[in-house]
Write a structure and sequence with these properties.
This protein is an alpha+beta fold. Helices cover 49% and strands 15% of the residues. The longest helix is centred in the C-terminal third of the chain and has 22 residues. The radius of gyration is 20 Å and the shape is globular. 41% of the residues are buried.
Length: 351
C-alpha cells in the first residue's frame, strides 16, 4: 500500500530524555518534529500505561479523512519491535487465508522512517478495554466477539501439531529471552528457578497436540477494537509478537487471563501460579474460553499446558520489547516470581 509523500515525511529527532513532568509535552513536540515538512497535520499522541516500558512513541497522524498510526522507536529494543511488526504485517497482507478479515488488520504505509519508524493504517472502533471498565454493561458479553474471532482464525489457518516437535520455537526461544532479559535470574538460585520452569514446561507439553497457525502473541483487550450496533471486532493491532506458526491456543487464554486480572485487580502472575497449583483452569475461565472454541483440556495430558505456555509467551514478549521489564522489581515480583516459585514447588514434590 503506497502512501502520498506528504504523509510519509517522517524525519528528524528530538532529544530522547526529558524530565518526567515534561513527558507529555515532549511526546507532542517530537511527534510534530518527526512529520515536519509534511504540511499542517492533526496529530494525536496515543498515551497508554505500557508506553514508558515499550520504548515507543505512538501517535496518530490525521490528514482529512485518512489516518495513520506512527510508531517511533525510543531505543534499540523499540526499533527491533517496529522492524518485527513491519515484517509480520507484510506477511499478514500476503496470506490469502486471512482475506475475510483483511479490514481488521493494519496495513504498512510507506517505507521505514528514521530509526525504524513504522507507519500503518489506523483502524476504526473503540478499544475493547474501555468497554471492560465501563460502569454499565456486562464486560464478559462485550468481549465475546473478540473471542469468537480467535475461533475463526484458528479454523482458517491452524493445523494440529505435536507440541514436542515445536519446543525449540515455542519454548526454547522464549526461555532464552527470559534468561537474557532478566539479569537477576542468570546465576545461582534464581537460575535454578528458570531451569525448574523448563522442566515444568517439558512435563506439561509431553503428549500435547496443539494448533499451529496464526498467533497474535499479545492478544488482550487493549489490542482489540470494537464497533457497536452490532457489537463486532473492527480491528486487531500490535502484531510485533505475531507469527504464522505459533500455538494458536495461547491467544484465547492470554485474553481471558488479562481480562480476569483487570476485573479482579489481581496480579497476572499470581493468577497463573494459582492455576498451576490447582492443576486445572478455573471454571469461570473455561466458560469464556468456550466462546473461542477452546477447551483447555483438549489435546493435552496436563491441563496447565496452555496456561503455562501462554504465560511464558507473555513474559518473554515483554522482556524482548524492553529491558526495563527485566529490571523492574514490581513486574518481576508480581508477574514472574509467583509462577517460578510454583514450578520450584512442583519440582521439589517430584524428588
Amino acid at each position: 500500500m503506497k502512501t502520498p509523500a506528504k504523509m510519509s515525511s517522517l524525519s528528524g529527532l528530538l532529544p530522547l530524555y526529558f524530565p518526567r513532568a515534561l513527558a507529555g509535552l515532549d511526546d507532542r513536540l517530537r511527534a510534530h518534529w518527526l512529520v515536519r515538512g509534511a504540511g499542517p497535520r492533526d496529530i494525536t499522541v496515543v498515551r497508554r500505561p505500557s508506553l514508558p516500558k515499550a520504548g515507543l512513541l505512538v501517535f496518530e497522524l490525521r490528514d482529512g479523512g485518512r489516518s495513520l498510526v506512527i510508531k517511533h522507536p525510543r531505543d534499540a529494543a523499540g526499533a527491533a519491535v517496529t522492524a518485527r511488526e513491519r515484517e509480520v504485517l507484510l506477511e499478514l497482507a500476503d496470506d490469502s487465508r486471512l482475506d475475510p478479515w483483511r479490514a481488521l488488520l493494519p496495513q504498512v504505509a510507506g517505507s521505514p522512517g528514521p530509526g525504524g519508524t513504522l507507519a500503518q493504517t489506523a483502524l476504526p472502533g473503540v478499544p475493547a478495554e474501555r468497554l471492560i471498565m465501563a460502569p454499565a454493561g456486562d464486560p464478559y458479553t462485550a468481549m465475546a466477539p473478540a473471542l469468537r474471532l480467535l475461533a475463526d482464525l484458528r479454523a482458517a489457518t491452524g493445523r494440529p501439531r505435536k507440541a514436542a516437535d515445536r519446543t525449540p520455537a515455542w519454548c526454547e526461544e522464549q526461555l532464552s529471552d527470559l534468561a537474557a532479559g532478566m539479569p537477576r535470574y542468570r546465576t545461582g538460585r534464581r537460575a535454578a528457578e528458570l531451569e525448574a520452569l523448563r522442566h515444568r514446561l517439558d512435563a506439561a507439553l509431553t503428549g500435547a497436540v496443539l494448533t499451529e497457525g496464526w498467533t497474535h502473541g499479545d492478544y488482550h483487550a487493549g489490542n482489540v477494537l470494537l464497533g457497536r450496533a452490532p457489537l463486532r471486532v473492527t480491528g486487531v493491532f500490535d502484531w510485533s509478537s505475531g507469527r504464522a506458526d505459533g500455538p494458536c491456543e495461547i491467544d484465547a487464554y492470554s485474553f481471558v487471563l488479562a481480562l480476569r486480572a483487570t476485573l479482579t485487580g489481581r496480579p497476572l502472575g499470581v493468577l497463573v501460579a494459582e492455576t498451576l497449583r490447582a492443576g486445572r483452569v478455573p471454571d469461570a475461565d473455561r466458560a469464556l474460553l468456550a466462546q473461542a472454541g477452546l477447551d483447555p483440556d483438549d489435546g493435552v495430558v496436563d491441563p496447565v499446558a496452555i496456561p503455562l505456555l501462554s504465560w511464558l509467551w507473555h513474559v518473554a514478549n515483554n522482556v524482548r520489547k524492553s529491558p526495563r521489564f527485566g529490571l523492574s522489581y514490581g513486574w518481576l515480583t508480581h508477574t514472574v516470581a509467583p509462577v517460578l516459585a510454583e514450578c520450584v514447588r512442583w519440582a521439589g514434590a517430584r524428588t
